[in-house]
């Protein structure tokens, strides 16, 4: 029985939030229906969030992210781009996005015609590592 449980766990995809400091500060998460990647590039001083959906992102005039949980918030922009199945927002400040990811339980990315909800379970630690990376002095 233990072997069956171990095999089941090995074949189940991991849905963890992960942080990597190289080549640029990167926070990533994948689950069925969505891939999320948040980056900070010291060379350009820009943050970006890229959300990939297997269904793509139909054209829309605005994009929003709603965070539900302990610190609910909704952030909207008309400045974004879509390429293939990925929607990307780039900006010089991401405090509200990082707060949303760190302090809530779900995030729903949406336009007028499409929506994706992802779990934020396990996000706080990697978000804190990402924040430290993004504010670290350049060597």
Total count of helical runs of at least 4 residues? 3
Order of strands, widest sheet? 1-2-3-4-8-7
The residue ranges in which pLDDT falls below 50 over 5 or more consecutive positions are 1-14
Order of helices and strands: HEEEEEEEEHEEH
Question: How many strands in all?
Answer: 10
The dominant shape is globular
Largest sheet, in brief, is: 6 strands, antiparallel
Q: What oligomeric state is this?
A: single chain
Structural class of the secondary elements? alpha+beta
What fraction of residues sit in β-strands? 35-45%
Mean pLDDT: 89
Radius of gyration: 16 Å
CA(first)-CA(last) distance: 52 Å
Name the helicity range.
Answer: 10-25%
Salient structural properties:
139 residues, 4-stranded antiparallel sheet, alpha+beta, 3 helices, 6-stranded antiparallel sheet, 10 strands, 22% helix
């Amino acid at each position: 029985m233990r072997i069956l449980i171990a095999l089941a766990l090995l074949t189940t995809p991991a849905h963890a939030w992960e942080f990597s400091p190289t080549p640029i500060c990167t926070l990533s998460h994948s689950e069925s229906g969505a891939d999320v990647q948040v980056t900070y590039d010291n060379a350009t001083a820009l943050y970006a969030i890229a959300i990939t959906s297997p269904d793509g992102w139909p054209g829309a005039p605005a994009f929003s992210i709603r965070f539900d949980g302990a610190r609910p918030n909704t952030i909207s922009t008309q400045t974004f781009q879509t390429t293939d199945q990925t929607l990307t927002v780039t900006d010089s400040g991401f405090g509200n996005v990082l707060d949303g990811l760190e302090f809530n339980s779900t995030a729903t990315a949406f336009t007028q015609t499409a929506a994706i909800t992802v779990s934020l379970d396990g996000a706080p630690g990697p978000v804190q590592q990402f924040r430290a990376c993004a504010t670290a002095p350049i060597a």
